[in-house]
Amino acid sequence: MKRILLLLTAILLYSCGSYKGIATDSIEKSINDWHHAAATANYDDYFNLMTNDAVFIGTDATENWQLKEFKIFSKPYFDKGKAWSFTPLERHVYQHNNVVYFDELLDTQMGICRGSGILKKEDGVYKIAHYVLSIAVPNENVASLTELKKQWDDHYKKELISRQ
């Protein structure tokens, strides 16, 4: 009976998915290549590593970019020869069934940021389907940051409520 329970536990843990047991090399390569394409202002490579229905959520509350709009927004940065540079400091990759998702801490021009995303495999390549970027704020700085952005938040909340 103990052997059966041990076997069932092992099967359950393996089936839940995590970094182990998935094509980590190709996933890591896709994410790293995506960040590298931005850092080297390679517009085509950057957007070819995103799905056709990709979404990019930026650090500003107004930035919920569908792919077409994100391409338009990003083009001037890439055209200048330097978009943005996100260097991974730490990354965790997970898989559940056919869904691959990750979170990462990044060294950026904004300091340490957190990114999280969902990847889909298209044409044999893992591509970014959804990405969320946020500025990591130490807990001891939250009160002063909240005060700093209070007026903007109040104005934007009213705008959002008026749209409903």
From TrEMBL:
Residues 1-20 form the signal peptide. The keyword Signal applies. InterPro entries: NTF2-like_dom_sf, SnoaL-like. It comes from the Bacteria. This is Nuclear transport factor 2 family protein. It holds the Pfam family SnoaL_3. Residues 27-138 form the SnoaL-like domain. It comes from Nonlabens mediterrranea. PROSITE patterns: PROKAR_LIPOPROTEIN. Keywords: Signal.
